[in-house]
Give the backbone structure.
Amino acid sequence: DVADAVHRAIMGKGLGDSFEVRLQGLFPAHSEDHIYTITKDMVSLPADMPVKLGTEFKINRGSIARVTEDDGKYLVLDANHQYAGKEVVLKMTLMDILNIGNCYIDELSFGEDC
């Protein structure tokens, strides 16, 4: 999990040290099951909102799909998360170490006291 990865990365670091945390699998894998080809007439948009690459639509149960191809008649929509299958790299600099009392790092959660 993210907190564990950050915890491991800061061990032995001092104030001002910069480092990276690489997270794989944070988002689901890209799935071809979330790619849809539709005809343009299946989309009803206001005339002042042209369909172009990157246009986003709400589809089934509020999911978001982006237009990835447009051949004039058909649109290809990608409903995968925009970061599906990608590695996330956090670039960090240790700026301060806060006195958090008697808490251990694995007891901390955002917005809560130990």
Notes: The CA atoms of residues 39 and 74 lie 4 Å apart. The first strand starts at residue 18 and ends at 23.
